[in-house]
Design goal:
The protein is of the alpha+beta class. The chain has one domain: Nuclear Transport Factor 2, Chain: A (Roll), CATH 3.10.450.50. It is built from 3 helices and 6 strands. The protein has a 6-stranded mixed beta sheet with strand order 2-1-6-5-4-3, with helices on one face. The N and C termini lie far apart (49 Å).
Length: 149
């Protein structure tokens, strides 16, 4: 199995920096910048809406390359909930996705989970999992503060 080509560096001092770079690259269909957000590890995982689980940089790159060739897509993360530790960060987001189709733009709402690890190269994405889209935004209930006993 071929290795993932080395990616240009992303200046990422936090998982949020990587997330911002990922969505900017996604909105601008910039494949190299998008792939630079991912860890240089063949165990990285991506599931795009309605698609199969992809493992490894080569499979992930091919999927995004195909997606960019089929339509213009823009996605904005909203309603983020994060769980952070010293070396890992999990972001649960609702993505507002706009897809430009020949018949006109279509908007969907997607629940996504992005997982980041702090690596020797800084923070990098190790997993992106996106649900199938919905035509209406989901009801988002922000968690309240609770004391666990």
């Amino acid at each position: 199995m071929p290795k993932t080509p080395r990616q240009p560096a992303v200046l990422a001092t936090s998982a949020s920096d990587v997330e911002a770079a990922f969505y900017e690259a996604l909105q601008n269909a910039h494949l190299d910048r998008l792939m630079a957000c991912w860890a240089e590890d063949e165990e990285i995982v991506c599931t795009l809406p309605g698609g199969p689980r992809l493992v490894g940089g080569v499979a992930i790159r091919l999927a995004f390359e195909r997606m960019f060739s089929l339509s213009a897509i823009r996605a904005w993360p909203q309603h983020m909930h994060t769980i952070d530790s010293m070396t890992a960060s999990v972001h649960s987001v609702i993505e507002r996705v706009e897809i430009m189709l020949p018949e006109g733009p279509r908007q969907n709402w997607v629940a996504a989970t992005n997982v980041y690890f702090k690596t020797v190269h800084g923070w990098r994405m190790v997993m992106h999992h996106a649900s199938p889209g919905a035509a209406q935004p989901p009801e988002v209930k922000e968690p309240g503060k609770r004391l666990l006993h």
